[in-house]
Amino acid sequence: MVVEEDAPWVDVASLEMLRFLGRRIGDLPVLVVVSYRDDELASERALRMLLANLATAPTPHRLVVKPLSAAAAERLAKAAGRKAAA
């Protein structure tokens, strides 16, 4: 399992590694998770190019996660002993 969080902040070499894996893992028992926010994508040309390259690959799947509601953020913050506004 490979996890890359906040992909707009990674270096070009890491993006190249993700491209390589995304094109070659096929049926191997490997999970590669890459997270990024759509609103950060506009300014990140290298990440946009990676996503475009992988769009035609047979194995990658995209999962869109919706933002938390204010009520959900409040519940999570309260469970962690924090205030949601913070």
Written account of the structure:
It is a single chain. With 86 residues, the chain is mainly alpha-helical. It has helices at residues 12-24, 38-41, 45-54, 70-79, and strands at residues 2-4, 32-34. Strands 1-2 form a two-stranded parallel ribbon. Helix 1 packs parallel to helix 3 (45-54). It is elongated. The termini are far apart.
Question: Which terms summarize this structure?
Answer:
2 strands, two-stranded parallel ribbon, mainly alpha, 7% strand, 86 residues
Short structural description:
With 86 residues, the protein is mainly alpha-helical.
Strand order, biggest sheet?
1-2
Strand content is 5-15%
Total E-strand runs: 2
Low-confidence stretches: none
Q: What multimeric state do the chains show?
A: single chain
**Which class do the helix and strand fractions yield?**
mainly alpha
Distance between the ends: 32 Å
> Would you tell me the overall average pLDDT?
86
- The share of residues in helices is 40-55%
Write down the Rg.
16 Å
Overall form: elongated
Count every helix, treating DSSP H or I runs of 4 or more residues as helices: 4
User: SSE order in H/E notation?
Assistant: EHEHHH
Sheet bearing the most strands, described?
2 strands, parallel
